[in-house]
User: Fold this.
Amino acid sequence: MQLFEDLFARLTALVSSRRTRKTLAALLALTAIALALGPVLFPTGPPGEPTLVAARDLSPGTLLTPGDTKVIHIPAELRPAGALSGQSADRMLAGAARAGEPLTDVRLVSPSHGPPGTSTVPIRLADPGIAELLHPGTRVDVVAADPHQQRQLASAVTVVTVVTSGGESKARPNSAKGPLVLVAVPSEVATPLASAALDRPVTVTLR
Assistant:
């Protein structure tokens, strides 16, 4: 009985010592830090937001297929504005994309519509041969072809598609004569450009 009393007294003295109190205080502080950093060091939620990215290097005008893209998870704060979370059907790239690059709504166009905030304007070029150089996603400037009144009608617009006189897209041409070029332009430019293209011949310069 005396032995147990002696052990209890020694333990009591040990706990009450200044060094032990400091050790316990340090352990409690470390425990608090671990609890605070736990969600950061060991997240239990989703690894990030699903984001559509290019699976390989893609050229302008690519009609996207499931093999061209993939979905990865990235932190929400690193996602660009307008980033897509899944495959969009019947969409083409308005510009080149590197493998792993997030795809946003303004980077894609449909065969008949441009990116958000734009309107699609059909123009017929003064020189039909120039249309052979164009494809969906090509960036061009639209210029009045009148030698007495040369001026830029629209700058850095995107070709949505090229339609032949037979109504087929350039990818499946019916006739090479008189192609119609559909360009996506800012909505405020659409009406003046459409009006100008009706009154005078126009051409484009490639960017």
